[in-house]
Specification:
Elements (H helix, E strand, L loop, with lengths): L6 H16 L6 E2 H8 L13 H13 L3 E5 L6 E5 L12 H13 L4 H7 L9 H13 L6 E3 L11 E3 L23 H35 L7
Antiparallel strand pairs: 1-3, 2-3, 4-5
Helix pairs in contact: 1-2, 1-4, 2-7, 5-6
C-alpha cells in the first residue's frame, strides 16, 4: 500500500491513533480536541502550532484518501474524527505492539529501541528491549513494506534510531547538527510531566467541546417553533 504523508498529516494520524488508545472515552475527537492533540508540547517532536482551519484542511484531505472518517453524534452538530489507518479496509493490519511503535514514530520522529520501549508504555507493553527490536524487524520485513528503517548510528550514541517510512525516505541529520543535541533524556520525571501536561490539555479540550455543544443546544432552543403561534 503506497501512502506518503506530510509531517502535518503524520501528526494528525498519530494523534488520532494515540487518543484512540489512551483516552477511548473522548474518542473520536472533535476538531478542537484534535488540534490540541496535534499541538501538544509533550510527546511531540517537533512541537507544532497548527490552527483549526489548517487541521480541518488536513482532515478533509485524509478523508478523501480514506485514512480518516467523520461522524456527528446524535443531537450534535460537532463533527468528530477517527483514523482508518489501521484495521480497516483502507488501512494496515498491525499488532498492538507494531501499532504502538508506528504511533510514536509518527508523533516523535526517529527513536532508539530504548526510547520506543519507554514511550509506548501507554499504547502497548514490551517485556524488554529485545522484544522492541523484534517488532522493528517485523515492520521492516512486511511484504507490503518496509514500514520502518534503521538509521546509521549517530556519533556519541550507543544505539541506532529507527524511523517510519510513511513520509518517504528519511533525511539523515548532518554531522554538524546531530539529532542527539536536541533530543530530550527519557527519565521517569520527564515522563510524569508529559502525562500531566497531556491530561491538562485533554481537560481543556473537553471543556471547549462542552461549551460548543451547549452553545449549539442554546441556538436550537432559541429558534422559533414553526408549529407555534
Amino acid at each position: 500500500m503506497n501512502i506518503e504523508l506530510t509531517l502535518d498529516e503524520a501528526r494528525v494520524i498519530g494523534a488520532l491513533m494515540e487518543k484512540a488508545t489512551t483516552t477511548p472515552n473522548q474518542y473520536p475527537l472533535s476538531l478542537n480536541a484534535l488540534t490540541n492533540a496535534c499541538n501538544q508540547k509533550s510527546n511531540r517532536e517537533p512541537v507544532l502550532s497548527l490552527d483549526e482551519v489548517s487541521v480541518q484542511d488536513i482532515v478533509d484531505e485524509l478523508i478523501q484518501r480514506h485514512l480518516v472518517s467523520s461522524k456527528s453524534e446524535f443531537g450534535s452538530r460537532v463533527a468528530k474524527y477517527r483514523h482508518r489507518f489501521l484495521n480497516s479496509e483502507f488501512g494496515f493490519r498491525f499488532t498492538e505492539q507494531e501499532a504502538g511503535v508506528i504511533c510514536v514514530l509518527l508523533l516523535r520522529g526517529p527513536q532508539t529501541p530504548g526510547e520506543l520501549r519507554t514511550r509506548t508504555n501507554r499504547l502497548c507493553e514490551f517485556r524488554d528491549g529485545r522484544e522492541v527490536e523484534e517488532t522493528l524487524k517485523q515492520l521492516m520485513a512486511y511484504d507490503e513494506g518496509p514500514f520502518v528503517t534503521k538509521l546509521p548510528r549517530e556519533t556519541g550514541r550507543r544505539d541506532s534510531c529507527y524511523a517510519h517510512l510513511f513520509s518517504g525516505e528519511v533525511e539523515l541529520p548532518t554531522p554538524t547538527a546531530p539529532m542527539s543535541s536536541s533530543r530530550e533524556a527519557v527519565t521517569p520525571g520527564s515522563e510524569r510531566l508529559d502525562r500531566l501536561e497531556e491530561a491538562v490539555g485533554e481537560l481543556r479540550c473537553e471543556v471547549e467541546d462542552a461549551k460548543r455543544e451547549l452553545e449549539d443546544i442554546k441556538r436550537r432552543l432559541e429558534q422559533p417553533n414553526p408549529g407555534s403561534g
